[in-house]
Design goal:
By secondary structure, the protein is an all-alpha fold. It has a single domain, classed as MFS general substrate transporter like domains (Growth Hormone, Chain: A, Up-down Bundle), CATH 1.20.1250.20. Helices cover about 85% and strands about 0% of the residues. It has 15 helices and no strands.
Length: about 400
C-alpha cells in the first residue's frame, strides 16, 4: 500500500513538474510574441505604410532601424553584466511593459528624431527582456529535465510576426495612416503581455538565493570560462546579426518598390512568421542528430540563399522563397545557438547569452544604415543584400566545427 501511495505521489509530483514546465514554455512564447514578434519586428510590415504616408524615407528608415539595434546592443550588454536590482524576473516584467508602451508611442508622428529615440528605447527594452526571459525559461526547464520544450518558447516570435502581419494586412487597406497601425500593434502587444505573469509567474522562494549570492558568482565564474569555442560562437552570431537584418528590415520595402510585388508588402512578412513556427522544432531535432554547430552552419547557408534570392529574383515567387527561408532559419539559429551556449558555458549562461546578443546587436545595428546608404547610392538593396549573404556564409564557416565546452 505504501509503495502504491509512493508511486502515486511520485506520478503526481512529476505531472505537476511537467505542467509547470509546459506553462513556463508557453509563458515564454507569449513574452517572445510581444517583445520580439511585435516590439522588435512589427516595424518591418508597418514600414511600407510609413514610407507611403511620408513619415520616413528609405535612408531615415535605415537610421531608425539602426537606433533600435543600438538600443538592443546596449540592453544586451547591460543584461549580461550589470547587477539586476529586484532580480531578473522583475526587470524582465518591467522591460516587457516598456516594450509595449513604446509600441504605442510610435503612433505619434513627431519627426524622425522622435522615431529614433523611441526605437532606441524599444531596442533596449527588448534586449533586456529577451536575455532575461530566455534565461528564466531555460533555467526552469533545465531544473525539470524539460529542455526539449525550449523551442516552444521561440515559437512566440513566429506567432507574433504572423499575428501582427495578418492584423496589418487586414487593417492596412482601411486605415489612413501608419500611426493607426502602431496603435493596433500596441494593443496586440498589451493583450499578450498581460497573459505572461499568469503563465510564467515568479518563483519567490528562489529569488533571495539568485539575487543575493548566485548572480555575482556566476558572472565572475562565467567570465573565466569563455573558451575559444565560445568566442567563435559569439563572433558567428555577430555575422548572423548583420546577415539576416537587411532582409528582415526591408522585406516590405522591397515588395513596395515594385507594383507587381505590392501583395507581398504584408504577406511576405506573414510567410516569415509562419515559417518560424515549425522551424524551431525542426532545427532542434536536426541539431541533436548532426550536432548544434553543423545545424547552425546549415541554417546560415540556407538563410544566405534566401537573402540573395530576395534581390536576385525580384518576383512574387522569389520574394516568397526568400521570406520562407528567412523565417525558416533565423529564429531556429537563435534557439539552437542559445542551447549550445548553455552547453559551452555551464548551468547559468547569462554572460555568454548577453555577449552573443550584443555581438548580434553590433551586426544588426550596422546592417540597416549600411543598406540605407547603399540604397541612396544605387537606388536598390542588391549590393547590401549580397554583402549580408556573404556574412551568413562566414557565420556558417565559423560554426561548422564542433564547439568545445569549458
Amino acid at each position: 500500500m505504501a509503495k502504491i501511495s509512493g508511486k502515486l505521489m511520485g506520478t503526481s509530483t512529476r505531472g505537476q513538474k511537467d505542467k509547470f514546465a509546459l506553462l513556463s514554455a508557453v509563458g515564454g512564447c507569449f513574452a517572445m510574441a510581444a517583445i520580439m514578434g511585435i516590439g522588435r519586428f512589427v516595424y518591418t510590415p508597418v514600414l511600407p505604410f510609413m514610407l507611403q504616408d511620408g513619415s520616413l524615407n528609405e535612408v531615415n528608415a535605415g537610421f531608425v532601424a539602426s537606433s533600435n539595434y543600438l538600443g538592443y546592443l546596449l540592453g544586451a550588454l547591460l543584461a549580461a553584466r550589470a547587477p539586476l536590482p529586484g532580480g531578473p524576473y522583475r526587470i524582465f516584467i518591467i522591460a516587457l511593459a516598456i516594450s509595449t508602451l513604446v509600441t504605442f508611442l510610435m503612433a505619434f508622428s513627431l519627426g524622425v528624431y522622435w522615431y529614433i529615440i523611441i526605437r532606441f528605447i524599444a531596442g533596449l527594452a527588448s534586449a533586456y527582456a529577451f536575455v532575461l526571459v530566455a534565461n528564466i525559461v531555460m533555467q526552469r526547464l533545465a531544473e525539470r529535465q524539460s529542455l526539449n520544450l525550449f523551442p516552444i518558447h521561440f515559437t512566440g516570435v513566429g506567432f507574433g510576426i504572423a499575428g501582427s502581419s495578418l492584423m496589418i494586412e487586414w487593417l492596412g487597406s482601411n486605415l489612413e495612416t501608419a500611426s493607426q497601425l502602431w496603435l493596433a500593434s500596441g494593443f496586440l502587444s498589451l493583450a499578450l503581455s498581460v497573459c505572461v505573469p499568469f503563465l510564467l509567474p515568479p518563483e519567490p522562494q528562489k529569488a533571495p538565493v539568485s539575487a543575493a549570492s548566485q548572480t555575482p558568482e556566476i558572472t565572475k565564474a562565467s567570465a573565466n570560462k569563455l573558451t575559444l569555442s565560445a568566442w567563435r560562437l559569439i563572433i558567428a552570431y555577430g555575422c548572423f546579426g548583420f546577415g539576416y537584418v537587411i532582409t528582415a528590415t526591408f522585406l516590405g520595402a522591397l515588395a513596395g518598390s515594385t507594383p507587381e510585388l505590392a501583395p507581398m508588402k504584408s504577406m511576405g512578412w506573414l510567410l516569415v512568421g509562419l515559417a518560424v513556427i515549425p522551424s524551431v522544432f525542426i532545427w532542434e531535432r536536426l541539431a541533436v542528430r548532426i550536432g548544434y554547430g553543423r545545424a547552425i552552419a546549415a541554417a546560415c547557408t540556407l538563410e544566405a540563399v534566401g537573402v540573395a534570392l530576395s534581390v536576385l529574383v525580384p518576383t512574387i515567387a522569389g520574394l516568397s522563397g526568400a521570406a520562407i527561408l528567412l523565417g525558416g532559419t533565423f529564429v531556429g539559429i537563435t534557439s539552437i545557438g542559445l542551447i549550445e551556449a548553455r552547453r559551452i558555458a555551464g548551468s547559468d549562461p547569462r554572460q555568454i547569452v548577453g555577449l552573443m546578443t550584443a555581438a548580434f546587436g553590433v551586426g544588426q545595428m550596422f546592417g540597416p544604415s549600411f543598406a540605407g546608404y547603399l540604397y541612396e547610392l544605387n537606388g536598390n538593396f542588391t549590393a547590401a543584400s549580397l554583402a549580408a549573404a556573404g556574412a551568413l556564409i562566414l557565420a556558417a564557416l565559423l560554426t561548422i566545427k564542433r564547439f568545445v565546452p569549458a
